[in-house]
Amino acid sequence: MNTKIKAASAREVLSTSGYPTLETIVTLEDGTRGIVSVPYGTSAGKHEALTLVDGDPKRYKGKGMLKARDNVNSVIGPEMVGLDARDQEALDERLVSLDPSPQRSTLGGNAILSVSLAAARAAAQSLGVPLYSHIREVYGLRHTDFSLPKPMVVVIEGGRHADNSTDLQEYLVGVIKDRGARENVRAAIEVYLTLGSILKSKGYSTNVGTEGAYAPTAIASNEEPLVLIEQAMKDAGYQPGKDVAIAMDPAASEFYADDGKYHLRRDGKVLSSGEMISFYENLVGRYAIFSIEDGLSEDDWDAWPKLNEALGNKIIIMGDDLTVTNVERLKMAIDRKAINAILIKPNQCGTLSETIAAIRLAQEDGLKTVVSHRGGGETTDTFIIDLATAANCDFVKVGPTRGERVVKYNRLMEIADELGR
Ligand code: PGA
Ligand code: ZN
Q: Would residue 23 count as lying in a domain?
């Protein structure tokens, strides 16, 4: 075993959107190869690390990744040679020093993250330990036991994730009653399947959106999915609010306009921040909703604390575009009492160490943590599941179908088997 880095190299591969993304290989002196592919978002937050694309209209409609690839091969890779892949924090510090711009806009967050994660995977493989154990060890995460994350499964999607569905981006089924990873996955997926039958019986399309959830074009309103999902929960034999419950990710930045208002086209409504909060309070009073993510826009800082005050004692109020897995923005959100939970996406910040720092800060402050897939260009990589396991995160948010999603739930169940759960 020699965990010194010999080389880091990247290539362009296809992501699930059809557009390219990066696959990066970190090779160690002992011959171990850690391979990762990194995703990117469709409704990416304004404050996220940059996914660097070429902008050359002659290739992949401008979204080629040759620049990011070259940044790994010519700039980042040579700087990694000789570093010990076990010393992830030093390695990530070096990565950040190569591009200290706040949004990693010089080298690209995609280029930097791919090297960071591939090094971790290579080290774990060389050491012969599961990735989740390696991550826990490296960061000295002081959890006494592994408590596996529960599934939060996207079941209906709209917004930018589908054509002509709801304005709100995601409706999810979260597992409340923990029956172990396999049964948890089964519960959420059975609700998804039952929802499919209900949609069909109503003459709605069961075609799926970018995350593999239903995207019914004829849906009447932003509220109707809540009715249908509660029905699906009951029909599938699970009690809404006890066994399973509804989570929502409106991704409100996407329907927040320059006029400072929220435009719900499907409902023919234009709402102020205060009215938007009342809209949620009303829904939470009538449906088994346990979590709202990005209920308000990413820069609507004055309204977020009001939303958290109104509902934070009853349900999860979670930042995604608001916090972008960024410690500084998370601190701001904590100071202002804007949230009680954070969505974690490694590619929003750019390195494994920064991701862990955000999780750690959130957990120290008593916030719930939810590790998430991306809606746009996903890949069959399952790193996020090991990450969520390593840090005892509360949930993983992933879509219910399509290979790049199910591979993540399959990894979760594999880990459960490994741990004898
Ligand atoms: P994404 O959206 O398309 O930006 O990944 C997913 C989300 O908002 O959680
Ligand atoms: Zn989101």
A: yes
* Residues flanking ligand 1, CB < 6 Å: 41-44, 169, 249, 251, 320, 372, 374-376
**pLDDT tens track for 200-222:** 999 999 999 999 999 999 899 99
Q: How far apart are CA 327 and CA 337, in angstroms?
A: 15
Note the pLDDT tens digit of each residue in 125-137: 999 999 999 999 9
**Tokens 């009447």, located at residue:** 220
For residue 376, the ligand 1 atom closest to its alpha carbon is 3
Options 150, 345, 368, 397, the catalytic residue: 345
Distance 97 CA to ligand 2 centre (A): 29
What is the share, in percent, of the chain residues with pLDDT greater than 90? 97
Please tell me whether residues 250 and 370 are part of one structural domain. Answer: yes
- Terminal C-alpha separation, the chain: 31
Q: Which of 352-371 are b and which e, b meaning 16 or more Cβ less than 10 Å from the residue's Cβ?
A: bbbbbbbbbbbbeeebbbbb
CATH number of domain containing 59:
3.30.390.10
CATH for 176: 3.20.20.120
Does some domain include residue 138?
no
- Quick check: pTM over 0.85? yes
